[in-house]
Amino acid sequence: MPLLEQVTQSILAVNGLQTQDVDRVMAALLSVPVDAADIYFQSSHFESWSMEGGIIKEGSHSIEHGAGVRVVSGDKTGFAYSDRIELPILLEAANNVKAIVRQGQQAQRQIEVAKSWPQLYQPLNPLKSLDDQEKIDLLKRVDSETRKLDSRIEEVMVSLIAAYDSVLIANQDGSLAADVRPLVRMNVTVIMVENGRREQGSMGGGGRSDYSFFLENDRAFEYGREAVRLAQVNLQAQEAPAGNMTVVLGPGWPGILLHEAIGHGLEGDFNRKGTSAFSGRVGERVASDLCTVVDDGTLVGRRGSLNIDDEGTPTENTVLIEKGILKGYMQDKLNARLMGVKPTGNGRRESYAHLPMPRMTNTYMLPGSSDPEEIIRSVKKGLYARNFGGGQVDITSGKFVFSTSEAYLIENGKITRPVKGATLIGNGPDVLTKVSMVGNDMALDSGVGTCGKDGQSVPVGVGQPTLKIDGLTVGGTSV
Amino acid sequence: MQNQEEINRLKNVVQQLLDEAKQQGASAAEAAFSVDNGLSVSGRLGEVETVEYHCDQGIGVTVYFGQKKGSASTNDISSDSLKETVKAACSIARYASEDDYAGLPDVELLATEFPDLDLNHPWDINAEQAIHIAIECENVARGYDKAISNSEGASVNTHQGTRVFGNSLGFLQGYQSSRHSLSCSVLAGSGDAMQRDYWYSVARDAGGLESARQVGEKAAQRTVARLNARSLSTRQCPVLFASEMASGLIGALIGAISGGSLYRKSSFLLDTLDTQILPDFVRIHEQPFLRGALGSASYDSEGVATRARDIVSDGILRSYILSTYSARKLGMQTTGNAGGVHNLTVEPGSNDFAGMLKLLDTGLLVTELMGQGVNRVTGDYSRGASGFWVENGVVQYPVQEITIAGNLKSMLRNIVAIGNDVDLRGNIRVGSILLERMAIAGE
């Protein structure tokens, strides 16, 4: 069955609605002059399993559905939602939200709509890709294999999560777009103890696939091995240095730096409003000419990928920075229209109960030409940051921070000893201008990123090659 | 003011779930149902920006088959959906392992008294009126100082909800509560020197909110004060956490003495019960029965009675923060903290904020923290910060792009003073906190 038909069936028909009913709600929204209107239907299935202390400890399952109704007039938005997908309720919501429209344009009915787009993932239900006994067996095997790796392991925690999300988006031009979005995630955390010192290591991954993802290439067990390795490193870690120094960022997950320091500041809403440190800077140099950064929602099976965004726009590979020059911003429909540019497929929302806004998908830097070992060799004294915890940015001042979860000192061109979690702090518009070497080892993260903005969480991907930054503030205790 | 009819409607659904669980063979069960309605509006540059109508409901059930447990939830309360939800929970329980510590609370610990805590004050306000307040607030902020150059707008939020919880031991209770807020965020300066800050007020009763003028002025003052911020050189110095930042410090302490961290042995305060973890003068206590307060509750998320009690007195840790499960894992008794603490209060000292600045003398005042650099296992602490450099008790200039670092164990022991400038906007009530010294990293 074609995707659109399948989703129409699973969201509308099961609630006794037909596509004509959607038209009636849309007609109610369009009875006043508006610039845009949409109705977002969603049905989500979610499960999680967790293992701790050698037993299957928690399991949960949830089913949610609902619809959100939105009108936009100029830069004004009216929005209401309901968990009951019923015609009278949707009509009432439509009547409530259109009150925001006092004046406006008649909705443009001739918007170009892509009628087809490549399928970046299969419309699978990951919850059904293994039976419950097989899920349990997988968790137990990962737990027992991980525990064998080191006698200092005190505790192992393994979790397995799957979501199966169907969305149907009705736009003011009468178009209907559907997407079915599977997402799986696994995580292993170990706690290790030596001589009274207790440290932990954590590793996970996932993507828009089903549970078979974890069985391929030994991934599930690799997470366990990597978590143990990280805990072992942390057991050896000493005080982090403090001060301004050369920092080499490892490939893959450290791309969270791009996400925090650069990506958020390039989201269309902040730039339309002029509240970002990058506002009004398209065409200007914001990075060294070694840096090309893209936001790419079109990667097959990645955690941050989407066939279409939450406004029905097919995702794109958007060049944000090309050879150091700022090229453009990430846009949803509202901000694209107000800025006079095209939407880039970055209009995302956490659920039907949230408003869409410009959000990242998979944000990464393209590879350069340097051998990563050569990059390390070029540093006399500095920090090699191989893994990070979370980060945060103030998009207005441009200031960002993130915390290392695996880092080493570089002394005379050699990686010497591991250092404890240190905080790196810098200035977004500044940091990439200090990139002096870019590795040829571009890697994407393993599929664990979740981005928060205005209280809404969405899954994202990050990536980068090894990078050398000449001068970043490292906040350690060893002054 | 409690609408008993609405509470009873939810109670019926919860009872239906508990009955269904029994029907499907569960030996015990608990269920919760919450409904929340709200309105959020925002105005920016003098005009309405968004109007959002919120309407959420969620129902969750946990079933036990002996010592095996499973949970499920949904937002669809049709009777078919409720049956399916219970079935999903039962199916999970069949695959879960026997866990000796799993189960409902001991029946004698369940709450039996339900005083009116004065939590429900719905705000009779429509979108038009809310927009008016938001725009007034933003206008005050924009007009406050010539340096204010742009705005992220102001918003008014009002929420009212009903929560019911029941279990198969016969507990079935519910209450209504409200929560309203007013916030404003503006920018000052331009280009590389642009700064942004915000202020908000939150209360159960709209009458308890700061006025649009107060919120707008504070947002503008805070933003303008950040202009021309500098970094600091790397150094060690005393640090004063402004009260709105001090709650995070106390939050880290609470996390470390919470059952989940303790039985996982992932806490820097392991085995510290009845030992000194703070200076002699510090008292931290829980006040669950404060009328109209944001964290008040007569029972926790398992139905266990909450208690007014000391957690720290004379600097000595008197009690962990436990749920039924974590308590059993530790061989203790629940403290009525499933779901968290209730109006955790750090006894204020004698100094107001100005007095605390004098005590700081020369050092760093922290008004914003960034990032998640707090390691609960080791207590290592390293976060991005901004604030003000203070000399001889007088603010000199704003600072940014620095980090502050230390270890929470010694940071807590080295608290010099706690102010009486208590921030009442959260579940942790604490004034500003002065630490003897921390490591600052900057340019």
Automatic annotation (TrEMBL), chain A:
Tell me which Gene Ontology terms the entry assigns under biological process: proteolysis
4Fe-4S among the record's keywords? no
Give all residue intervals belonging to the Metalloprotease TldD/E N-terminal domain. Answer: 37-97
The alphabetized UniProt keywords are: Hydrolase, Metalloprotease, Protease
Superkingdom to which the source organism belongs: Bacteria
Q: Which InterPro entries match?
A: Metalloprtase-TldD/E_C (IPR045569), Metalloprtase-TldD/E_cen_dom (IPR045570), Metalloprtase-TldD/E_N (IPR002510), Peptidase_U62_metallo (IPR051463), TldD (IPR025502), TldD/PmbA_N (IPR035068), TldD/PmbA_sf (IPR036059)
Provide the Metalloprotease TldD/E central domain boundaries.
126-235
Give yes or no: UniProt keyword S-adenosyl-L-methionine: no
Entry GO MF terms = metallopeptidase activity
Q: Identify the GO cellular component terms for this protein.
A: cytosol
Q: Which residues form the Metalloprotease TldD/E C-terminal domain?
A: 243-476
Give the Pfam families listed for this entry. PmbA_TldD_1st, PmbA_TldD_2nd, PmbA_TldD_3rd
Q: Which family does it belong to?
A: Belongs to the peptidase U62 family.
Record protein name field: Metalloprotease TldD
Query: Which organism is this entry from?
Result: Methylomonas denitrificans
Automatic annotation (TrEMBL), chain B:
Where in the numbering of this chain does the Metalloprotease TldD/E central domain appear?
Answer: 121-227
This protein's source sits in the domain of life called Bacteria
**Any one annotated GO CC term:** cytosol
**Alphabetic keyword roster:** Hydrolase, Metalloprotease, Protease
List, in alphabetical order, the Gene Ontology terms for molecular function in this entry. Answer: metallopeptidase activity
Q: Name one GO biological process term.
A: proteolysis
Q: What region holds the Metalloprotease TldD/E C-terminal domain?
A: 234-442
**Which InterPro entries does the record cross-reference, listed alphabetically?**
Metalloprtase-TldD/E_C, Metalloprtase-TldD/E_cen_dom, Metalloprtase-TldD/E_N, PmbA, TldD/PmbA_N, TldD/PmbA_sf
What range(s) does the Metalloprotease TldD/E N-terminal domain occupy?
A: 29-93
Q: Which family is annotated?
A: Belongs to the peptidase U62 family.
Q: Could you tell me which NCBIfam families the record lists for this protein?
A: PRK11040.1
Q: Which PANTHER family match?
A: METALLOPROTEASE PMBA
By what name is this protein known?
Metalloprotease PmbA
- Give the originating organism: Methylomonas denitrificans
